[in-house]
Write a structure and sequence with these properties.
The protein is an alpha/beta fold. The protein has a single domain (about 5-255), classed as Alpha-Beta Barrel (TIM Barrel), CATH 3.20.20. About 45% of the residues lie in helices and about 20% in strands. It has ten helices and eight strands. It is globular and about 50 Å long. InterPro entries: DNase_TatD-rel_CS, Metal_Hydrolase, TatD-like, TatD/YcfH-like. This is Hydrolase, TatD family. GO terms for molecular function: DNA nuclease activity; hydrolase activity, acting on ester bonds; metal ion binding. It comes from Pseudothermotoga thermarum DSM 5069.
């Protein structure tokens, strides 16, 4: 079974001791490729360097909503410069996060809009982070629009109605470890509502491990457990689910 992890942070310190060994095991674990995601300009540079080092790793460059209040005036130019590297396949993660509000809503909105426009200008897909801000994010996406390739709402956490609205805009829905949590009935309903043709698998590693590994560091190979849960929810063959979600990931990021 082969699969993709469309949202990882393998350059984070959590992987410092065994990163190389972990990545070398990707082929034997079924990991076809990983999108390693940047959260600010300097972090995006690290994501790019990791992608350049390993064949199966690609990356995105962007500013997370938590970091929106810290951007420098030339941050967009620096992100655009990074996109000249051939392993950069997306802009993000960008978006809105009203759960913690580490940056003001005004800063988050401004930086989200600017990155959306950059993604459209460069025609790169966009990786979107939304938490407790689905209405505002939907409004912005509806007004500005998406790049031709679309994008993904990463770590989706709203209900089925919202999921379908974002799918109609042209976005995939990112499904990871939380779908395996027994009490997360809402996310299981989202999977049923949108179907595998609109789903991307992800870990958000080192965070959000599947239920069987709660309390441990998440890793790209654990996508297997996410696929098994999706297959169970949809009453589909897990190999078929893996094939379709892998094709979705290739379509968005590598086509």
């Amino acid at each position: 079974m082969k699969f993709a992890d469309t949202h990882a942070h393998l350059h984070f310190p959590h992987f410092e001791e065994d990163r190389d060994q972990l990545i070398k095991l990707f082929p034997s674990k079924g990991v076809e490729f990983v999108i390693n995601v940047g959260i600010d300009v300097e972090d995006s540079k690290k994501a790019v360097e990791l992608a350049k080092k390993y064949e199966r790793i690609y990356c995105s460059v962007g500013v997370h909503p938590h970091e929106a209040g810290k951007v420098k005036p030339d941050y967009l130019e620096k992100l655009e410069e990074l996109t000249k590297e051939k392993k950069v396949v997306a802009i993000g993660e960008t978006g809105l996060d009203y759960y913690r509000n580490f940056s003001s809503k005004e800063d988050q909105t401004k930086v989200f809009k600017e990155q959306l426009l950059l993604a459209k200008e460069l025609d790169l897909p966009v990786i979107i982070h939304i938490r407790d801000a689905y209405e505002d994010a939907y409004k912005i996406l509806s007004e500005i629009g998406l790049p031709t390739k679309g994008g993904v709402v990463h770590a989706f956490s709203a209900d089925s109605d919202w999921a379908l609205k974002f799918v109609q805009l042209g976005l995939f829905i990112g499904i990871g470890g939380p779908v395996t949590y027994p009490k997360n009935l809402s996310l299981k309903s989202v999977v049923r509502a949108v179907g595998i043709e609109n789903i991307l698998t992800e870990t958000d590693c080192p965070y959000l491990p599947p239920q069987q590994l709660r309390g441990k560091r998440n890793e790209p190979s654990y996508i297997r457990l996410v696929l098994e849960e999706i297959a169970k929810i949809l009453d589909e063959d897990v190999e078929q689910v893996a094939q379709i979600t892998l094709a979705n990931a290739k379509e968005l990021f590598l086509s």
